[in-house]
Write a structure and sequence with these properties.
Helices cover 17% and strands 47% of the residues. With 162 residues, the chain is an alpha+beta fold. An eleven-stranded antiparallel beta sheet has the order 6-5-4-3-2-1-11-10-9-8-7, with helices on both faces.
Length: 162
């Protein structure tokens, strides 16, 4: 039994892809942006983990559960209960699994220069954590190149994936 579990864990580790990430956190009220580096790991069918600043800043999508740690504060939500993340989850899952981008009223997809830019502008409540999301993917390989989460008052967190 231990060998089976060990083999399964090894297979999961090998199937995950790790990439380098540069995270820029822009606050309109602060003169300098906070820039950190880290890694992004993707596992099919619906797992993404972005860890920066030595693991202090985390963004994890595990199934429908989103966990974000920023500035020492942990935020957890589920896309089944949070409309703002429902479309975001569906699009990330489609990208990970090489499926077509699902259409929705709050989604705009543009293609330019070999890249697809997917903008998600959630409708609804005024007190949302983010006003919009931008995902930039390679048009041919569907590799995620950028994730940007726009906040209120011009603030944003930008992840550039290499």
């Amino acid at each position: 039994m231990k060998r089976i579990i060990f083999t399964l864990l090894c297979m999961l580790a090998l199937s995950a892809t790790a990439q380098t990430v540069t995270r820029t956190q822009h606050r309109a009220a602060v003169a300098n942006d906070a820039v950190t580096t880290g890694t992004m790991t993707i596992r099919k069918p619906d797992y993404i983990s972005i860890s920066t600043d030595g693991g202090k800043e985390l963004l994890i999508m595990e199934g429908t559960k989103f966990t974000m740690t920023m500035g020492g504060k942990k935020h957890v939500t589920d896309s089944r209960k949070n409309d703002q993340f429902a479309t975001f989850h569906a699009i990330l899952e489609a990208i990970i699994n090489g499926q077509p981008i699902p259409s929705a009223d709050d989604v705009t997809v543009t293609t330019k220069g070999g890249q697809k830019s997917i903008t998600i502008t959630p409708n609804g409540k005024k007190r949302q954590m983010f006003t919009s999301f931008l995902l930039v993917v390679d048009a041919k390989t569907s590799a995620i190149q950028q994730i940007r989460m726009n906040g209120r008052k011009g603030d944003y967190t930008d992840y550039i994936i290499k």
